[in-house]
Amino acid sequence: QITERIIVLFAVINSQEEVQGKYVVCILFFLWNLLDVVRYTYNMLARTGIYYLPLTWLNFSLCIPLYPLSVLAKAFAICVSLPYFESSGTYSIKLPLPFTFSIYFPYVLKMYLLVLFIGMCFIIQNLFSERKAHLGTGNIIKKRS
Description:
Order of helices and strands: HHHHEEH
Structural class: mainly alpha
Strand order of the largest sheet: 1-2
Distance between the termini: 50 Å
């Protein structure tokens, strides 16, 4: 998660001034902070032995819809930045003669988008299993009298 945020924040958003003013950056920061405030508050209280049920539910339920939204916001920020990277050639490298190899950064970002969406599928499955382990299935079985 830290590597993911470093790539998006410093390599994509910070390096292109045109992207910094886009609405998607504000939405992305809002989603990141909302998820972190709930998660870190829950973890801090859980470490001290305090389990507040609404916060537990919020921690394990809020991340399920918000994580895919943050992935979409990251993907949109990357897609918005691609034309700027293509025109400026930022982070694109051409190695000298013995190697004759070049790295075109927009292609790296496109590959990262693919990995980002594949990883999201695994993380969503993990989030559902954590929610089920901590909160149960949520099904209420009616007793017959």
